[in-house]
Amino acid sequence: MAWLGVDVGGTFTDLVLFDRETSRLEVLKTPSTPKNQADGILTGVERLALDPARLERMVHGTTVATNTALERDGPRLAVVSTRGHRDVLVVGRGNRMAMYNIKAPPNRPLIPRSQCFEVDERIKADGTIHRPLDERQAEELGDLLAAEGYTAVAVCFINAYANPAHERRCAEILAAKLPGASITTSSAVLPEYREYERFSTAALNAYVGPRMRHYVGDLRGRLEKAGMRAPLTIMSSNGGSLPAKRIEELPVLSMLSGPAAGVIAATHVGRAAGVPDLITCDMGGTSTDVCLVRGGEFDMTTEGRVGAFPVKIRQIDINTIAVAGGSIASATAGFLKVGPRSSASMPGPACFGRGGLEATVTDANVVLGRLRTDRPLGGEIHLDRAAAVDVVARLAEQVGLGVEAMAEGILRIAAVSLAGAIKEVSVMRGIDPRDFALLPFGGAGALHAADVAVELGMTTVLVPPLPGNFSAFGLLVADLRRDLVQTRVVRTDETSVEAVRDQLKVLVEDAQEELADAGYGPDRTRFSASLDMRYSGQSFELSVPVALDVADMAVIEAAFARVYAARYGAPTAARVEIVSYRVAAWGLSEKPVLPPVDPQGRALDAARTGMGEVVFGGVAHPTQVLARDLLPPGVSIDGPALIEEAGSTTVVLPGWSVALDAIGCLVMRQT
């Protein structure tokens, strides 16, 4: 029997197949199919010669929900709000996105004001009903929406987090009038306060719902027709997987599924390699995601965004930058920039031979010899060096540089941009990146890792096994995870520890029910709790971990004081508030094990596949080319070198060395 992880990126669809009987991992890359991601997945399954009936588990990371939101090509969406609050999504926070431009236009809202509707109702912040829901108005609104062809509705009432009764009743009325429509209530998606973020998250959930349901249903149907009987699960933004049925109900949970899987895989490999302090760098064809991991743990956040829209669901704290292998280099008024425009998978970089006409980061790597053209990229894309030289030369002519100098300039700008993204999750938070190892993955991560490390003063790079398919591997490592939250604002001196435990218990019971529905018994579950807390009068909270059976309110207050002091300095004497209660629930899954590297048949002479000329610092260096699969463990190799494998190439700079460790990681160090 086997497990399959499938991660769909902007350029490639990555598959990792784990055979439980032999503990063998098989990887594959196939071009993504943006019009229907399922086409690329089925192509990959066919190329793996996989009988879907053998699958016990399939975990999928998808960008369908994210792309729908970013491209704004979802269904016609209506938002129904409490009378007097139809402008919440339009006004937002009123923040100026371009800080120093007083004339900068505001971000365009997800929907125009004309698609925001109101009904009479009002619930107070304590959950009591101030004005009953006017059901006649809700029925009339349902008739109007049906007549105008709306297929998605988000019901977002003020203070619905404290009492969801009005939202639920309104949704029932609208569902009767709009059969088949995607109807979301904000209290079901995010029972937290802060109307704008809650409304935005609920609206996005309704907006991406129809397409996500169609996609998941189509994929599942095609796999079942091919013989698959295993349950399909989808990666969520918090680093855990969920049954496809749950994602169909709450598709907003899958907004950052691919990047999250990579971080999960990185923590798994980092622990196995004895390197728990990592900065991940997931560089694909369209964007790069970075995340800081300390002691084998990553931070979570509720401040995520998809484009201009806040998504307040709990997610791994990942910073994304639009610089990657397919990023287009351009010159404006003599200034060179790389990204944010991308060639994506179609047509792709010029060297792909699919009609790309602008220089990209991948083209620059081909020009400099870092990517060789004698082996297909991803197993099937034959690189055209002449096409890469042509587009880089045209750009070089615009700024008065030679072709190789232009290519090195493109890579230098890319490295500086990536280093800047890493500084945002490290230096800007008072953390020195030099105390961490850089763990690159994605199709382009290992190509640029040493350059990025040099920019940051980092001296260790850990290239994991399967770097080109690493996020797909992370899908197989991830446990099922669900995060639940409930806002109940109360001062600690006005409540009791029993009340805190009772509220957490309610969330745990809800999580237990959901885990049980997914087939996880008590022996395969784990729970943790935290409280969002602040001093009275403050606007924002800190997450404070607490035990589910916390013994005393003084323990909670002391924990908050420690977290506050670590973030801001000494605590104050102000009163303390609990704002929201959170429970994280895991359904524990079996995981593929990375076996120790078998030295049998591995030797340095066997690993050497040739020599090449690679340009470093304007000078062409004779550079040995090695096959990663044949490298013997523990043997140090001095750079420059190219280490090739399916789906990725690792560049070892002059002045660096590399060795294969016991579990198959390439450890690069500055000498």
TrEMBL record:
Location of the Hydantoinase A/oxoprolinase domain: 198-483
GO molecular function, one term: 5-oxoprolinase (ATP-hydrolyzing) activity
Domain Acetophenone carboxylase-like C-terminal: 497-665
InterPro entries: ACX-like_C, ATPase_NBD, Hydant_A_N, Hydantoinase_A, Oxoprolinase-like
One of the GO biological process terms: glutathione metabolic process
Domain Hydantoinase/oxoprolinase N-terminal: 4-175
Gene Ontology cellular component annotations, sorted alphabetically: cytosol
Alphabetized PANTHER family for the sequence: 5-OXOPROLINASE RELATED, HYPOTHETICAL 5-OXOPROLINASE (EUROFUNG)-RELATED
Protein name per UniProt: Hydantoinase/oxoprolinase family protein
